[in-house]
Amino acid sequence: MSVVLAPARSIDSTRARALTTLGAGVAIAEGVELATGLRADLKWPNDLFVARRKLGGILAEAVGDAVVLGYGINVGPAAYPVELTDRATSLESELGRPVDRARVFAETLAALAARHADLLAGRFDAILDSWRARSPGCQGRRVSWTTPSGQHTGVTAGIDELGALLVRIDGRIERIVAGELVWF
Hints:
The chain is an alpha+beta fold. It has 5 helices and 10 strands. The protein is globular and about 50 Å long. The model has no long low-confidence stretch (mean pLDDT 92).
């Protein structure tokens, strides 16, 4: 699914744009829960998880002043490649029953509209607080990542006011704004 979100013209449009992916994650998790009763957790910056297995993902791309937000949710059981069977899941696999796809679609769109309205109105704490409540891994999880200067390892220490992941490494806090992390 892809949607076009109106330009961020809030009190702080830079902050609104920075929090778009986190806000979308909150919204999609809320929509899934409303449609199915299944609670999904979030993994920074853009993944939905259930029982440490990936349920869906989100991508956001700026196009002019707007943002094109794409998201996917694994609804039905799939024949995952062998290397993914222990890391991926679906709504129907978790629930053990069929899921009304139209309801999942409608609830996620409604939740996206509500959370986008939060961003446009400058209600950033509502997004950040909800994201933190759904992200058990943003505090105290070991992660590693690669930068041009080499491989790094640290322990997650939350997210900041712009949605960057904070990681404690060698007694200091490193701010991660993008990239591929490996979670332990």
